[in-house]
Amino acid sequence: MLMRTDPFRELDRLAQQLMGPGTWSKPSAMPMDAYREGDEYVVAFDLPGVSADAIDIDVERNMLTVKAERRPAAKAEHVQMELSERPLGVFSRQIVLADTLDTEHIQADYDAGVLTLRIPIAERAKPRKISIGVGSGHKEISG
């Protein structure tokens, strides 16, 4: 159901750590899981510390794009940062969805830093019975 679009993901992740945060023109990748659950395809993205209004989800034809921005927390005037390891900036992921998914009915939920998209399997992709006419009678075959 899902086609990978980035064979060099680990190399990009290492480069991201060395080069700093992502920008809107060159976003960093975000980790995700994808699996089938019944008649839905589920894709979950880890976005801890990102507010829901900083997430943008688009679908154009079969290309799903998720962009998010983790902004720095507002600091008081006399605060001195001692350690900063949590990445800031823009994160993005593009996924090519199979034609068997119904992109018109995607549901999105954001809870505890995890964005979960539920994409239904299209009716045309579900198994169905086909009748075969033999002479004057019909025989059903599961398919």
What is this entry, summarized?
The protein is mostly beta strands and 143 residues long.
- Our measurement of the CA-to-CA distance between the termini, rounded to an integer number of angstroms, reads 19 Å
Morphology call: elongated
**Major sheet: arrangement of strands:** 1-6-5-4
What is the percentage of strand-forming residues? Answer: 35-45%
Number of helices: 1
Helix content: under 10%
Mean of pLDDT: 81
Look at the helices and sheets and give the structural class.
mainly beta
| Total number of strands | 10
Radius of gyration: 21 Å
Could you name the ranges where pLDDT drops below 50 across 5 or more consecutive residues?
none
For the largest beta-sheet, the strand count, sense and barrel status come to: 4 strands, antiparallel
- SSE run: EHEEEEEEEEE
